[in-house]
Amino acid sequence: MARMVSKQRNSRRANEGKGMAVMLTALKHCMNRNGSESEISCLLHFETWGLEEEKLYFHADQLLRGVYSVWLEVWLKFFDRKDLLVVRSEDYFADPVEVYSRVAEWLGLDPSAIDYHARIERLGKAKTPAEAAQAMQAPVDDKLWNEIRQILLRGEREDVLRYEFNSRQAKLAAQGQQEQGVTGNSDGGRPPMSAAIRRELTEFYAPYNQRLAQLLEDPNFIRGWN
């Protein structure tokens, strides 16, 4: 059974690799059709360029959504840079509580203020000045904040494990190796992406990643992506 499952996973990865190659070829063909002027249109409106593109759009969308710089440039036409906070999913998976706190702080919210939830509730129920004063002196209740922390840590655990596994596989694939006895993935792990496809994807995304770093004025944002 284990051998059969392994063959199925290898076959699935091979099919994914072929599909990825087809998508990259179709996207490059779309971009080359009318020169540089069509690049953004191909990325944003790929399915409108013809029947072939329309058929491939569902799959090509998996590629297009990773071209973050193009989408960010659209947002920057309507919002100032200071009004946008861009967060790396890797950072969120690594420390969801820290990122949650950073987002709350960026929004002008004090994460620690959540600890006063019960105190505010008691204050709202106070009927006399004495009860209000007593409510304000009551110990801070951190129950709600603790619940939020638990949800953040528990809810993303599977994604964290998958991210860690994929990161290891990417490094091993670059060295022509494959992790054996994989743990931490619900389906037992999948074979790494072929070196050829990984190289094509890296080359495809590289200029867009560099552009993203420029837009964010943060070269460190794309660390580990290329």
UniProtKB/TrEMBL annotation:
Residues 172-193 are annotated as: Disordered. One of its GO terms (molecular function) is N-acetylgalactosamine 4-sulfate 6-O-sulfotransferase activity. Gene3D superfamilies: P-loop containing nucleotide triphosphate hydrolases. The keyword Membrane does not apply. SUPFAM superfamilies: P-loop containing nucleoside triphosphate hydrolases (SSF52540). InterPro entries: CS_Sulfotransferase, P-loop_NTPase, Sulfotransferase_dom. This is Sulfotransferase. It comes from Volvox reticuliferus. Its EC number is 2.8.2.-. GO terms for biological process: hexose biosynthetic process. Residues 175-185 have a biased composition (Polar residues). PANTHER family: CARBOHYDRATE SULFOTRANSFERASE 15 (PTHR15723). Keywords: Transferase.
